[in-house]
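thought: fold this chain, then report.
action: predict
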Amino acid sequence: MGINNACGICINYTFNRANELKRDIETQKRNNASQLEALQNSKDDVEFLRKWDFTPGEASPTTDVTILCTSDGTLLHAHSRVLSSRSDVLRALLEGNEKKELQIDGSAGNSVKAFVKFLYTAELSRQDMRSRSIKELVKLAHFYGVKHLTNTLDEYLSKVRVIGRNGIIETIKLAYLHGLNKTKKRVLRIMAGSDKDNELFNKAVDELYEVNTRMAHEFSTDVVNLY
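observation:
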């Protein structure tokens, strides 16, 4: 290889490497800018919530979203910036929604209010944990992709006492249909200690099968693997 060719290869390599480094630097700058923007948005949210005296769900001069619970007609109010920052699904629903109106089907007003309150406070009360409310909260958390709420409910359900056969089946359905991994382990421990209760097993599989055949198969496989 001639000296000129070797120099040409070196120059090309150096030029290409310089361009790669430049692109890497620009990418890192964009990533840093996104992180700084997310941090600033988080700080803005904290300052926003600190500044305004607001009870989640109630109307105030600063709320810009209305939420209609179709099951009982309950109307709730919230801030779009809070909802959007807590849920990608809610953000997508609010983008381009000039009236900022949301409609939630199949959940009682009290459950939706507890859901909205959690988006603001990351807290649930004992009243929020009532049997019907907790089932609806699990479904809301799963549907709107609020992982922190899903984890909170999973932690609670994995420890709370399960009463009766129907209670066990409802807990199995919640765990398998909504990805509650700790609760799955809990119900499998219950099944392992049920002395091969075929009636309980068959009913749980049947009810899961009506909703999601894949989850019914996963549950039946998990139970079979216990023995």
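thought: worth noting. The chain has a mean pLDDT of 83.
final: tokens above.
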